[in-house]
Predict the structure.
Amino acid sequence: MGYVSLHMFPTGFNSPGNLWRSESPCYSTTAAGKKTRCGACGHLHSGWYDHRVRRVRDLSCGDTRIYLELEIRRVDCRGCGAVKPERLDWLADCPFYTERFAYFVGRRCRASTIKDVAQETHVNWKTVKELEKQYMREQLRRLGMPVPKVIGIDEVSIAKGHTYRIVVSDLVRRRPIWFGGKDRSEESIDQFFEWLGPRKSRQIRLAVMDMWKPFRASTLKAQNAPQASILFDKFHVISHLGEALDTVRKSEYARLTGKNRRFIKGQKFTLLSRRENLTCKGRQSLKLLLKANKRLNTAYVLKEAFGQLWDYQAEGWARRFFKNWREALKWQRLGPYEKFADMIDRHWDGIAAYCKPENKVGLGFVEGFNNKIRVLQRRAYGLRDEEYLRLKILTCMLPPI
């Protein structure tokens, strides 16, 4: 590596907050006799074209910013056909900063905004963003190519107008492994299996997803992961039941008139929440509502009972429970619930797969991670750079380096 010295700066750098050393020689960063590597294509050269002095920002010492002044060789590269500076492993991709300074910026950006880090380090916000990108790429490089056994597939909205991208997570290691696609179509999810490769795709034993048909169709393709079992996410199933309950609530509100409406108005959250999650005031409102409206009382009891479906260890018992639950709908005049039961019947295989002991995986990670993505977007007031968003999503669950 040779020697690197602190060297005198011009008058503009001779100020409080900048560290410099006067009248000292500037040493070459490349040892005598060592070949010089082209910074663009990586070809080795025994000689060099010329050398120039460069100032490089390093880690600060307290409130004092530290700069290194060093000689950088340039080579007349045959591969590039142009004069290029040499590559030094300890410099960042932005060559006016050391790699360890870039990693410091990347670690700070995990908890702070780019603007805050730029103000703290006295660096332009665009440079901070590029240094953070290098940090995140290094995180992914050290992690290597994933070999998932259980995957979770979900879409995330990145802009208005139904602009979606697909996020695939490793549910065993509880981290995202792929972000991409152009929408939530079958072709977009095919891109994930293309990226993963046929050999690793064959090792997937379980795929957790919502009931979106293209996700299932793509996963079960012969060239993707036809051996994988499909498991529909409990969160999405319960959300469909919640929508059915809310439809019943709206129909009851429209049916009633006058003072009878006061029991139903503003009680959507109370009905959709689990009883144990309600406050004392919420439980009192729920008790009053269910006492005043028999139809909503029946709908609420059926909604609470349906959650037992995921407690069964055998598919036969789960099927019997669902059959009895569906029988309870007779003569109740709950049209939205009957449509929900038909939907469950059509997708029964993907729901009953949870009864198998080997498929008892945490189903809340995918939706919980979606909330984390929305926090990232909200903190930045939206992200226009899709590559930056991809890196943020893929590294937000990784340990710092």
Summary: Residues 234-255 form the longest helix (22 residues). Confidence is low (pLDDT under 50) at residues 1-16, 20-28. Residues 1-91 form one domain.
